[in-house]
From TrEMBL:
It is found in: Cytoplasm. This is Ribosomal RNA small subunit methyltransferase G. S-adenosyl-L-methionine binds at residues 73, 78, 125-126, 141. It is an enzyme of class 2 (transferase). The keyword S-adenosyl-L-methionine applies. Keywords: Cytoplasm, Methyltransferase, rRNA processing, S-adenosyl-L-methionine, Transferase.
Amino acid sequence: MEATLPEPPEAARKVFGERLGDAVRYAELLADIGVGRGLIGPREVPRLWERHLLNCAVLSEVVPEEVTVCDVGSGAGLPGIPLALVRPDLRITLLEPLLRRINFLGEVVELLGLEDQVSLVRGRAEEVLPTFTPVHVVTARAVAPLDRLAGWGVPLLRPYGEMLAIKGETAEEELKAARGALAKLGMVRSSVLHAGVGVVDPPSTVVRVEVGESPGGVRFAAKRAKAARRGGSSRRPRR
């Protein structure tokens, strides 16, 4: 028996506002072809709103205004697509290596009319680094342990940028264990935040990693300098 997508809760109306209709269309895609293509499990359909869309959309509370964002390992578009719907001031790149996921994301972006706001880049972070235009903010959700995730995401940042990773209940312990690795990547500050308090239950737990003038540390600074000399850093992410 197929799981049924529930009606959007009142919190969704509050969070998505005038873009609620687009959020519903996205949820319907996830529940239909998203499940059919193996991008999301069928058991997740009844809790798509609370556990996935709203959990990601409230990340908007901690993202600065009018910045560039890269959603690393975007998968089915979480958190990048909900973030784009809530925050039209952001310019978002969805970075995803798997073709079937990129194809799905392309369909979503076109259907929701997000072409001017959202770009797609197929590849792994370490592969696209030489030609990638650094961003202010890197986001991620359920991609990898924090130390490994930071190794992929932090080098994509501009100087003084930040990585925002949606994590679970063990976020504090994970951050503590990863601090040594994060310091080598140029971290200057880190914290655990809670987004969506009073909106989603439980609120989203977000690890913020802020970097200084050398995101990724000395090794990646050298790589970026080499790419800049080749003119690579001026290239735009491919659509």
